[in-house]
Protein backbone atom coordinates (compact mmCIF):
# COMPACT_ATOMS: atom_id res chain seq x y z
CA UNK A 1 0.00 0.00 0.00
CA UNK A 2 1.43 3.36 -0.98
CA UNK A 3 1.37 5.87 1.84
CA UNK A 4 -0.62 9.01 1.23
CA UNK A 5 1.37 12.21 0.85
CA UNK A 6 0.95 14.17 4.05
CA UNK A 7 3.21 17.07 3.16
CA UNK A 8 6.13 15.88 5.27
CA UNK A 9 9.51 14.47 4.29
CA UNK A 10 9.65 12.09 7.24
CA UNK A 11 9.54 8.52 5.80
CA UNK A 12 8.47 7.18 9.18
CA UNK A 13 5.06 8.83 8.90
CA UNK A 14 2.51 6.52 7.32
CA UNK A 15 -1.20 7.26 6.99
CA UNK A 16 -3.75 4.56 6.31
CA UNK A 17 -5.45 4.81 2.97
CA UNK A 18 -8.90 4.67 4.57
CA UNK A 19 -8.68 5.87 8.17
CA UNK A 20 -11.42 4.77 10.53
CA UNK A 21 -13.92 7.33 11.72
CA UNK A 22 -13.78 9.53 8.64
CA UNK A 23 -17.42 8.98 7.71
CA UNK A 24 -19.23 12.25 8.48
CA UNK A 25 -21.81 12.06 11.24
CA UNK A 26 -25.37 12.72 10.22
CA UNK A 27 -27.83 14.95 12.05
CA UNK A 28 -30.67 12.77 10.91
CA UNK A 29 -32.11 10.61 13.66
CA UNK A 30 -34.31 7.54 13.34
CA UNK A 31 -38.00 8.42 13.14
CA UNK A 32 -38.96 5.52 15.42
CA UNK A 33 -42.32 5.24 13.75
CA UNK A 34 -42.92 2.04 15.71
CA UNK A 35 -42.46 3.72 19.11
CA UNK A 36 -45.09 2.83 21.71
CA UNK A 37 -46.72 5.62 23.72
CA UNK A 38 -46.25 5.52 27.49
CA UNK A 39 -46.42 7.63 30.65
CA UNK A 40 -43.52 7.95 33.10
CA UNK A 41 -44.63 6.77 36.55
CA UNK A 42 -41.36 6.90 38.48
CA UNK A 43 -37.64 7.56 38.04
CA UNK A 44 -34.95 5.70 39.97
CA UNK A 45 -31.22 6.03 39.25
CA UNK A 46 -31.50 6.22 35.50
CA UNK A 47 -34.30 3.68 35.19
CA UNK A 48 -37.84 4.73 34.34
CA UNK A 49 -41.02 2.91 35.27
CA UNK A 50 -43.42 3.32 32.36
CA UNK A 51 -47.05 2.48 31.71
CA UNK A 52 -47.68 1.91 28.02
CA UNK A 53 -50.92 2.89 26.34
CA UNK A 54 -52.03 -0.76 26.36
CA UNK A 55 -51.56 -0.97 30.15
CA UNK A 56 -48.20 -2.78 30.31
CA UNK A 57 -45.68 -1.83 33.00
CA UNK A 58 -42.25 -1.48 31.40
CA UNK A 59 -38.81 -0.53 32.67
CA UNK A 60 -36.89 1.75 30.33
CA UNK A 61 -33.78 3.85 29.99
CA UNK A 62 -33.27 7.12 28.18
CA UNK A 63 -31.81 6.94 24.67
CA UNK A 64 -28.54 8.81 24.16
CA UNK A 65 -30.08 10.86 21.37
CA UNK A 66 -32.31 12.69 23.88
CA UNK A 67 -29.26 14.43 25.29
CA UNK A 68 -27.92 14.90 28.78
CA UNK A 69 -28.63 17.33 31.58
CA UNK A 70 -31.74 19.47 31.99
CA UNK A 71 -32.37 19.67 28.25
CA UNK A 72 -32.83 15.93 27.95
CA UNK A 73 -34.55 15.40 31.29
CA UNK A 74 -37.38 12.88 31.49
CA UNK A 75 -39.60 13.27 34.55
CA UNK A 76 -42.68 11.77 36.16
CA UNK A 77 -45.78 12.63 34.17
CA UNK A 78 -43.97 12.85 30.83
CA UNK A 79 -45.58 11.29 27.78
CA UNK A 80 -42.86 9.40 25.93
CA UNK A 81 -42.24 7.17 22.93
CA UNK A 82 -40.61 3.80 23.72
CA UNK A 83 -38.90 1.23 21.48
CA UNK A 84 -37.23 -2.12 22.08
CA UNK A 85 -38.59 -4.76 24.41
CA UNK A 86 -41.91 -3.41 25.71
CA UNK A 87 -43.20 -6.78 26.88
CA UNK A 88 -42.70 -5.89 30.53
CA UNK A 89 -41.06 -9.25 31.27
CA UNK A 90 -38.58 -9.30 34.19
CA UNK A 91 -35.07 -8.33 33.12
CA UNK A 92 -36.15 -6.57 29.92
CA UNK A 93 -35.28 -2.96 29.18
CA UNK A 94 -36.87 -0.61 26.68
CA UNK A 95 -35.54 2.72 25.36
CA UNK A 96 -37.22 6.13 25.63
CA UNK A 97 -36.57 7.79 22.28
CA UNK A 98 -38.76 10.88 22.44
CA UNK A 99 -40.66 13.09 24.86
CA UNK A 100 -43.96 14.66 23.84
CA UNK A 101 -44.54 18.39 24.24
CA UNK A 102 -45.53 19.16 27.81
CA UNK A 103 -48.80 20.84 28.74
CA UNK A 104 -47.43 22.04 32.09
CA UNK A 105 -44.08 22.01 33.85
CA UNK A 106 -43.59 22.26 37.61
CA UNK A 107 -40.09 23.54 38.31
CA UNK A 108 -37.98 24.60 41.23
CA UNK A 109 -34.64 26.38 41.46
CA UNK A 110 -31.83 24.89 43.48
CA UNK A 111 -31.14 28.18 45.24
CA UNK A 112 -32.69 31.62 44.98
CA UNK A 113 -29.43 33.22 43.90
CA UNK A 114 -28.77 30.68 41.12
CA UNK A 115 -31.34 31.50 38.46
CA UNK A 116 -29.76 29.15 35.93
CA UNK A 117 -29.96 26.12 38.21
CA UNK A 118 -33.50 24.84 37.96
CA UNK A 119 -35.04 21.41 37.80
CA UNK A 120 -38.25 20.06 36.35
CA UNK A 121 -40.11 18.07 39.00
CA UNK A 122 -43.30 16.93 37.26
CA UNK A 123 -44.78 17.36 33.78
CA UNK A 124 -48.33 17.40 32.39
CA UNK A 125 -50.21 17.81 35.67
CA UNK A 126 -53.49 19.76 35.87
CA UNK A 127 -53.42 20.94 39.47
CA UNK A 128 -51.11 21.32 42.44
CA UNK A 129 -52.42 20.32 45.86
CA UNK A 130 -50.46 22.28 48.43
CA UNK A 131 -50.71 20.11 51.53
CA UNK A 132 -50.18 21.83 54.87
CA UNK A 133 -51.07 20.86 58.40
CA UNK A 134 -53.05 23.27 60.54
CA UNK A 135 -51.06 22.10 63.58
CA UNK A 136 -48.27 19.64 64.45
CA UNK A 137 -46.33 21.00 62.61
CA UNK A 138 -47.52 24.59 62.53
CA UNK A 139 -48.45 25.90 59.05
CA UNK A 140 -45.78 27.88 57.20
CA UNK A 141 -47.60 30.45 55.09
CA UNK A 142 -44.48 31.64 53.28
CA UNK A 143 -43.85 28.14 52.02
CA UNK A 144 -47.46 27.93 50.87
CA UNK A 145 -47.01 31.27 49.10
CA UNK A 146 -44.00 29.94 47.24
CA UNK A 147 -45.86 26.83 46.14
CA UNK A 148 -48.64 29.07 44.85
CA UNK A 149 -46.10 31.00 42.79
CA UNK A 150 -44.73 27.73 41.39
CA UNK A 151 -48.24 26.59 40.44
CA UNK A 152 -49.06 29.83 38.66
CA UNK A 153 -45.72 29.72 36.82
CA UNK A 154 -46.33 26.10 35.79
CA UNK A 155 -49.79 26.80 34.40
CA UNK A 156 -51.36 24.53 37.01
CA UNK A 157 -54.39 25.26 39.16
CA UNK A 158 -53.41 25.51 42.85
CA UNK A 159 -55.55 23.91 45.56
CA UNK A 160 -55.01 24.28 49.30
CA UNK A 161 -55.31 20.98 51.14
CA UNK A 162 -55.37 21.51 54.90
CA UNK A 163 -54.82 18.47 57.06
CA UNK A 164 -55.27 17.87 60.80
CA UNK A 165 -58.36 20.06 61.02
CA UNK A 166 -59.16 18.08 64.16
CA UNK A 167 -56.33 19.99 65.87
CA UNK A 168 -57.03 23.58 64.75
CA UNK A 169 -59.71 25.73 63.10
CA UNK A 170 -58.90 26.24 59.39
CA UNK A 171 -60.79 29.57 59.13
CA UNK A 172 -57.95 31.95 60.17
CA UNK A 173 -55.52 30.33 57.76
CA UNK A 174 -58.02 30.32 54.89
CA UNK A 175 -58.78 34.01 55.42
CA UNK A 176 -55.21 34.82 54.35
CA UNK A 177 -55.86 33.31 50.92
CA UNK A 178 -59.47 34.39 50.38
CA UNK A 179 -58.55 37.25 47.98
CA UNK A 180 -56.77 34.76 45.72
CA UNK A 181 -59.90 32.60 45.32
CA UNK A 182 -57.82 29.43 45.71
CA UNK A 183 -60.00 26.32 46.18
CA UNK A 184 -59.51 24.69 49.58
CA UNK A 185 -60.04 21.21 51.01
CA UNK A 186 -59.80 20.17 54.65
CA UNK A 187 -59.24 16.76 56.19
CA UNK A 188 -59.14 15.52 59.76
CA UNK A 189 -58.22 12.36 61.61
CA UNK A 190 -60.87 10.58 63.67
CA UNK A 191 -60.42 7.12 65.14
CA UNK A 192 -57.41 6.60 62.88
CA UNK A 193 -59.41 7.38 59.74
CA UNK A 194 -59.04 10.37 57.40
CA UNK A 195 -62.26 12.39 57.28
CA UNK A 196 -63.12 14.67 54.37
CA UNK A 197 -61.89 12.30 51.68
CA UNK A 198 -65.06 12.49 49.58
CA UNK A 199 -64.42 16.12 48.69
CA UNK A 200 -60.77 15.34 47.94
CA UNK A 201 -61.69 12.41 45.69
CA UNK A 202 -64.19 14.57 43.82
CA UNK A 203 -61.54 17.21 43.24
CA UNK A 204 -58.98 14.68 41.96
CA UNK A 205 -61.28 12.51 39.83
CA UNK A 206 -60.22 12.31 36.20
CA UNK A 207 -57.33 14.75 36.63
CA UNK A 208 -53.57 14.56 37.11
CA UNK A 209 -52.72 16.14 40.45
CA UNK A 210 -49.41 16.76 42.20
CA UNK A 211 -49.19 16.71 46.01
CA UNK A 212 -46.50 18.85 47.56
CA UNK A 213 -45.83 19.87 51.14
CA UNK A 214 -43.50 19.89 54.11
CA UNK A 215 -42.50 16.63 55.73
CA UNK A 216 -44.84 15.65 58.53
CA UNK A 217 -47.96 17.40 57.22
CA UNK A 218 -49.75 14.12 56.51
CA UNK A 219 -49.22 13.96 52.78
CA UNK A 220 -48.32 10.27 52.68
CA UNK A 221 -51.22 9.46 55.01
CA UNK A 222 -53.53 11.22 52.58
CA UNK A 223 -52.09 9.35 49.59
CA UNK A 224 -52.50 6.00 51.34
CA UNK A 225 -56.14 6.83 52.07
CA UNK A 226 -56.76 7.77 48.44
CA UNK A 227 -54.81 4.84 46.97
CA UNK A 228 -54.91 1.98 49.51
CA UNK A 229 -52.37 -0.07 47.57
CA UNK A 230 -49.82 2.77 47.50
CA UNK A 231 -48.07 1.84 50.75
CA UNK A 232 -46.33 5.20 51.10
CA UNK A 233 -44.26 5.37 54.27
CA UNK A 234 -45.48 7.72 56.99
CA UNK A 235 -43.53 9.37 59.78
CA UNK A 236 -43.99 11.34 62.99
CA UNK A 237 -43.09 14.96 63.65
CA UNK A 238 -39.91 15.61 65.64
CA UNK A 239 -40.96 17.02 69.03
CA UNK A 240 -37.80 19.18 69.22
CA UNK A 241 -37.66 20.76 65.75
CA UNK A 242 -41.37 20.60 64.93
CA UNK A 243 -40.51 19.12 61.53
CA UNK A 244 -41.31 15.78 59.99
CA UNK A 245 -38.78 13.38 58.58
CA UNK A 246 -38.70 12.68 54.87
CA UNK A 247 -40.76 9.58 54.16
CA UNK A 248 -41.01 9.86 50.35
CA UNK A 249 -37.67 9.76 48.56
CA UNK A 250 -38.85 10.32 44.98
CA UNK A 251 -41.90 11.37 42.99
CA UNK A 252 -44.26 8.63 41.89
CA UNK A 253 -47.50 8.64 39.89
CA UNK A 254 -50.32 6.52 41.30
CA UNK A 255 -53.57 5.64 39.56
CA UNK A 256 -56.68 6.66 41.48
CA UNK A 257 -59.41 4.00 41.82
CA UNK A 258 -62.03 6.34 40.34
CA UNK A 259 -59.85 7.55 37.47
CA UNK A 260 -57.10 10.12 37.28
CA UNK A 261 -53.60 10.24 38.72
CA UNK A 262 -52.05 11.55 41.90
CA UNK A 263 -48.32 12.28 41.90
CA UNK A 264 -46.75 12.15 45.34
CA UNK A 265 -43.52 14.14 45.72
CA UNK A 266 -40.84 14.05 48.44
CA UNK A 267 -41.39 16.34 51.41
CA UNK A 268 -39.78 19.73 50.82
CA UNK A 269 -38.22 22.25 53.21
CA UNK A 270 -37.50 24.95 50.65
CA UNK A 271 -38.68 25.82 47.17
CA UNK A 272 -36.39 28.03 45.07
CA UNK A 273 -38.19 30.34 42.63
CA UNK A 274 -35.42 32.40 41.06
CA UNK A 275 -36.55 31.21 37.63
CA UNK A 276 -39.92 33.00 38.00
CA UNK A 277 -40.12 36.67 36.95
CA UNK A 278 -42.74 39.25 37.93
CA UNK A 279 -44.52 39.21 34.57
CA UNK A 280 -44.87 35.43 34.70
CA UNK A 281 -46.60 35.69 38.06
CA UNK A 282 -48.72 38.64 36.94
CA UNK A 283 -50.23 36.56 34.15
CA UNK A 284 -51.99 34.50 36.84
CA UNK A 285 -53.85 37.68 37.91
CA UNK A 286 -55.67 38.84 34.75
CA UNK A 287 -57.50 41.62 36.62
CA UNK A 288 -54.22 43.10 37.83
CA UNK A 289 -52.46 42.45 34.52
CA UNK A 290 -55.02 44.61 32.69
CA UNK A 291 -54.23 47.52 35.02
CA UNK A 292 -50.47 46.89 34.93
CA UNK A 293 -50.52 47.30 31.14
CA UNK A 294 -50.24 51.05 31.86
CA UNK A 295 -47.11 50.62 33.99
CA UNK A 296 -43.84 52.13 32.75
CA UNK A 297 -41.50 49.77 30.95
CA UNK A 298 -39.50 47.60 33.33
CA UNK A 299 -41.89 48.09 36.25
CA UNK A 300 -41.42 45.43 38.92
CA UNK A 301 -44.97 45.91 40.28
CA UNK A 302 -43.57 45.68 43.80
CA UNK A 303 -44.74 47.90 46.63
CA UNK A 304 -41.78 50.27 46.14
CA UNK A 305 -41.99 50.40 42.32
CA UNK A 306 -42.09 54.04 41.14
CA UNK A 307 -45.10 55.15 39.06
CA UNK A 308 -46.69 51.68 39.21
CA UNK A 309 -50.18 51.85 37.70
CA UNK A 310 -51.40 49.40 40.33
CA UNK A 311 -50.82 51.97 43.08
CA UNK A 312 -52.77 54.61 41.18
CA UNK A 313 -55.56 52.07 40.65
CA UNK A 314 -55.87 51.68 44.41
CA UNK A 315 -55.38 55.35 45.25
CA UNK A 316 -58.20 56.64 43.05
CA UNK A 317 -60.65 54.02 44.36
CA UNK A 318 -61.06 52.00 41.17
CA UNK A 319 -59.70 48.87 42.83
CA UNK A 320 -62.21 48.78 45.65
CA UNK A 321 -61.68 46.62 48.76
CA UNK A 322 -61.53 43.37 46.76
CA UNK A 323 -58.99 44.71 44.26
CA UNK A 324 -56.87 46.18 47.05
CA UNK A 325 -56.82 42.82 48.81
CA UNK A 326 -55.90 41.07 45.57
CA UNK A 327 -53.00 43.48 45.01
CA UNK A 328 -51.73 42.93 48.55
CA UNK A 329 -51.84 39.17 48.01
CA UNK A 330 -50.11 39.47 44.64
CA UNK A 331 -47.32 41.54 46.13
CA UNK A 332 -46.95 39.10 49.01
CA UNK A 333 -46.43 36.29 46.48
CA UNK A 334 -44.10 38.50 44.48
CA UNK A 335 -41.94 38.99 47.56
CA UNK A 336 -42.10 35.26 48.33
CA UNK A 337 -40.12 34.47 45.15
CA UNK A 338 -36.88 35.57 46.76
CA UNK A 339 -37.73 35.30 50.45
CA UNK A 340 -36.16 32.71 52.69
CA UNK A 341 -38.14 29.64 53.67
CA UNK A 342 -40.19 29.91 56.83
Give the CATH topology of the largest domain.
Answer: Rossmann fold
Please give the alpha-carbon distance between the first and last residues: 76 Å
Question: How many β-strand stretches?
Answer: 15
Task: Please compute the radius of gyration using only Cα atoms.
Answer: 26 Å
Count of helical stretches:
8
Q: What is the H-and-E element order?
A: EEEEEEEEHEHEEEHEHEEHHHH
Structural class: alpha/beta
What does the largest sheet look like? Answer: 6 strands, mixed
Give the count of structural domains.
3
| Multimeric organization | single chain
Low-confidence stretches: 235-248
Helix content: 10-25%
Q: Which of globular, elongated, flat, extended, rod-shaped describes the shape? A: globular
Instruction: Determine the mean pLDDT.
Output: 85
Q: What is the strand arrangement across the widest sheet?
A: 10-9-8-13-15-14
Strand content: 15-25%
Could you explain how this protein is built, in words?
The structure is a single chain. With 342 residues, this protein is of the alpha/beta class. It has three domains: 36-99, OB fold (Dihydrolipoamide Acetyltransferase, E2P) (Beta Barrel), CATH 2.40.50.140; 105-264, P-loop containing nucleotide triphosphate hydrolases (Rossmann fold, 3-Layer(aba) Sandwich), CATH 3.40.50; 278-336. Helices cover 21% and strands 24% of the residues. It contains eight helices and 15 strands. The strands form four sheets. It has a six-stranded mixed sheet with strand order 10-9-8-13-15-14. It has a five-stranded mixed barrel with strand order 1-2-3-5-4. Helix 1 crosses helix 8. The relative contact order is 0.11. Mean pLDDT is 85; it is low at 235-248.
